[in-house]
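We modelled the chain as a single entity of 477 amino acids. Its sequence is:
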Amino acid sequence: MRIFTLETPSERVASEGERSEYPWLNATELRYTATVYLVHLFALVSLVLGSGQEHHSSIASLDRAVVIQSVQTNQMNEIWSNMPVQNFTPPRRLLLGPGPSMVHPRVLRALSTPLLGHLDPAFLAIMDDVQTLLRLVFQTKNRFTIAVSGTGSAGMEASIVNIVEPGDSVIVGVNGVFGTRWATIVERCGGKAIQVEAPWGQVIEPEAVEQALRRSGPVKAVAIVHAETSTGAWQPLEAIAHLCRDHDTLFLVDAVTSLGGAPVEIDRWGIDVCYSATQKCLSCPPGLSPFTLSDRALAAVKARRTPCQSWYLDMALIADYWAEGTRAYHHTAPISMLYALREALRLVEEEGLPARFIRHQLNSEALIAGLTELGLLPLSPTGQRLPMLTCVTVPSPIPEAEIRTNLLSTYGIEIGGGLGPLKGKVWRIGLMGQSSTEAHVLTLLNALEELFIRSGWLSTPGIALLAASRVYSRTAS
């Protein structure tokens, strides 16, 4: 793989050196200082050359100019000091919420790489690298595997606006916020959303999907959330994929939270459309949505009877920009974000998918062991819990929002609260990508122990840390 390095032009170094000769003065102060020196130099010359009223008058006029310049400078300094937007240095945070996750320094450096044009041959080579690496993470040979210019929500919308036409029926699994949102998009596209529901925190049963397929007539697609971020439920996909093949129905999967942290096997499972997001287990800043289409799905896109409802997300047009050889202009790609995604994917490749999945699972088990000792029980049952996002119920005596606020203000740790009907009832703790480490698990448990002891909800210090440590020790042995 090619590796970008930052090269600073020599002329930039020279100009920065010139500017730094008087680092304690800004531009206005330099102009003012120069004016004062010139005024007094002129006055000195006038006194040497002669005396008289005209010279004193000239000096007085120049002194008045200095006073005016001084007043103007003071006014400008006052304006600058009162400007509402100042330099920003973000506070240090440990990101253990539902996203974004921590980002590796290599990815942050890639973001600062000098820009190229979006049709520059060197940048097109970067796009090729991104496609190759995304195919690895998606475990697919799909030619149409790209990064959509937009967040995971753009990927979600793209999955529907390209597949669904007015009148099409789509079965949508609804067991949390994002299944609900998917159904809404189907309806906005003029389709019919057939909702197969399950309680929040539980998974969609294949039998329920099969019943919906049998009684609903022709169905264009089945849409299932693999990792429901609002509940922490981990949805099995293989059985539903087989049902879709049996009924000649496209299979759409939301892998926003799971990609890079748990197996997502596009080809082996028979998934037709899948999208994700960069800020979760890929540990890249938010702004891109990894997206892949099977040949079957791509054929459906090209066979549409009506134009795609979105020009920007029209994959038939975007294909010409990402396709090797064609590279027809569609939109200006977010160049720096693609640099960052490429580097984040290189880190995934270096670690290896199997090792990455084991790491996420281990840290999840240690976290749950510690949280259980604190009386914080997982919402989803055993076997249906995501390894990268743990959703735990918060007992009613504990003010969940207050604890989250104290975690952030005192310890610099961010975790998430509940959404929809789970608001105020659960915490969502993300161990995604760079955030999934033993040190981060123990840091969070230690902070929670301190807060619980301080408030009288815990009397025995160290029990959560000890429970998590046992999990790590058992694995090490």
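As a brief sanity check on the tokenised model: Residues 234 and 384 are 5 Å apart (CA to CA). The first helix runs from residue 10 to 19.
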